[in-house]
Amino acid sequence: MRLHSCGLLTEGGNGLSQCHWGAGAFLLALGASLNPGDEVLLSDPCYPCNQNFIRLYDAKVKFVPVYADTAYQLSADLLR
């Protein structure tokens, strides 16, 4: 299984594929999966529009700081 930059998970033969319009795909995926009051973890820093997309669906954003030593990526250790 692979998580693409546009937010879609792909696995052989399941009909999902990587897209080239990441922000639009992310917005659609959020709309299909979020409920009001849900909490979404985002790395800080992150793409600025992502927090607005999440808030559009009345979900809450919780930022997780990331640094150069983690290559600015979330990890299981940071989420604990």
List the main descriptive attributes of the protein structure presented here.
globular, 2 domains, alpha+beta, 80 residues, 3 helices, two-stranded parallel sheet
| Percentage of residues in DSSP E strands | 15-25%
Q: Biggest sheet: strands, sense, closure?
A: 2 strands, antiparallel
- Main sheet strand line-up: 1-2
Low-confidence stretches: none
**Average pLDDT, all residues:** 79
Helix content: 25-40%
In short:
By secondary structure, the protein is α+β, with helices and mostly antiparallel strands.
Describe how the helices and strands are arranged.
Layout: E1 2-3, E2 9-10, H1 22-33, E3 39-44, H2 49-56, E4 60-65, H3 76-79
Parallel strand pairs: 3-4
Antiparallel strand pairs: 1-2
Helix pairs in contact: 1-2
Structure notes:
The structure is a single chain. The protein is of the alpha+beta class. It has two domains: 1-33, no CATH class; 36-80, no CATH class. It contains three helices and four strands. It has helices spanning 22-33, 49-56, 76-79, and strands at 2-3, 9-10, 39-44, 60-65. Strands 1-2 form a two-stranded antiparallel ribbon. A hairpin with a 5-residue loop joins strand 1 (2-3) and strand 2. Helix 1 (22-33) packs parallel to helix 2. The longest helix is centred in the middle third of the chain and has 12 residues, at 22-33. The protein is globular and about 35 Å long.
